[in-house]
Amino acid sequence: MLPNVPQNNSRWTRLALLGFAFVAPFLGLYLSRTNIALALAPIFVSHVLLLYATLVANCQWWGPVVRSFPATESEVWITIDDGPSLAHTGKMLDLLERFDARATFFVIGMHAEKYPHLITEILSRGHEIANHTYTHPSGSFWAAGPARISAEIDLCAEWLRTGPDRPARLFRAPAGLKNLFVHTELSRRGLALVGWTIRGLDTVRRDPALVAEKILRKVKRGSIILLHEGHRTEKDPDFNPQCLELTLSGLAERGYRCVIPPPEQLRVRDAGK
Ligand SMILES: [Zn+2]
Questions:
Q1: Which residue has the higher pLDDT, 163 or 13?
Q2: Do residues 14 and 180 touch, judged by C-beta distance below 8 A?
Q3: How many domains does the chain divide into?
Q4: Is 132 a catalytic residue?
Q5: Ligand 1 centre and the CA of 79: distance in Å?
Q6: Are 17 and 134 within one domain?
Q7: Residue among 81, 127, 136, 183 flagged as catalytic
Q8: pTM, rounded to two decimals
């Protein structure tokens, strides 16, 4: 089943970006006849633009990114990355159940391979599984070519098929970084790239109250909330579950329901950036 993600004008932005990158050296060569400093300007600008499109998470210059959903009521979408985790997945599922919340777990394929029973448990308790690559190469995915991107997506997908009635339809890039080739490989597979509306920076911050506070300060109808599991399992094993608990509790106080939007509700907003 293909996710119903409308195309924005990213195609034209992508073509303009690549066109400028192609023309920039020739422009530089032409300008070098008059001023060498001026000649470097188009090359510098084209590199900055390419890096911005690649390294700024949620930027849509390479292609559409789902960054919110059109909720008609006070609904938000909780997404939990980097599991499944022996230390956390069970606790996260219990918390979600306590608050009658649904969530999408963007799982790492090699963790899913190791703990297939947790994938089954996530699905059987009414949540959704999505693709977050096989090895989670957060430092190098942005520079990966088509073959490596394909391998990361397909190897992960092999371990997500425990729910044939609910095929994995969504993908999130490690650290949200994606390059020119990622969208092509995703659209070949009918996968939508999902970003986020709010993140509490739970991989950086040390205080779960601050993580939840940042999320709750920015939350609005249709927000996609990014949280993590499986981090700091030795030094601070309760950190990730506490972030989720405080977030769920604050959302409930504010009257928000945590839902998984159906494919037809996913749309790309603010085209072009
Ligand atoms: Zn991740």
A1: 13
A2: yes
A3: 2
A4: no
A5: 11
A6: no
A7: 81
A8: 0.86
